[in-house]
Amino acid sequence: MRLLVIYTHPNHQSLSYAFLQEVLRGSKENPLIKEVKVLDLYEEGFNPLLVFNETKRRRDMHTDPDLALYRDQLMWADKIVLVYPIWWGRPPAMLMGYIDQMFSSGFAYRDTGKILPEGLLKGKSVVCISSMKGPAHYPLLWLHNAHKTLMRKALFSYVGIKKVKFFEFGSMESPRGRHKEKLNRIYHYFKRVN
To answer: CA torsion, points 23, 28, 29, 31, in degrees to nearest 10?
Structure first.
């Protein structure tokens, strides 16, 4: 199994970064995981801004040479792991900008003239690891599960990825947030995942 880990947080002293380290530690001990690549969107200097003009058209995004490396990474991966905080009930703008550009028509899906397109990323799986200041049930009770609906239905299902697992950790700025327990949970998941 090949893992592409997409890390989206501007601070390497953050809890998100600690989750990234546990993904890597667990993966290193898993004999089924053959290779891991990490894409740190902030460190990479990824430009999340969409640009459409006379020379850059939306319909050509799937062949944009500036995005070729990122397309290759996604095609290479068996499992895509996203590590990010929840800000204002959704992933950071940096990650959303990556999604806007990478999950484009002609690469991630193909219009068929039917209600739903043909997903071109079938066979891959996704793990979303997110943390937030608010309580764990806040997204479910207050936001009607908007974050999971966005990621599972509006994005991954649309492009053919059916297997999506969520680790959505709440109360992470509280001293009672049980950080060590949650970090350990991520480590053990990746140590055993197949």
So the answer is: 120
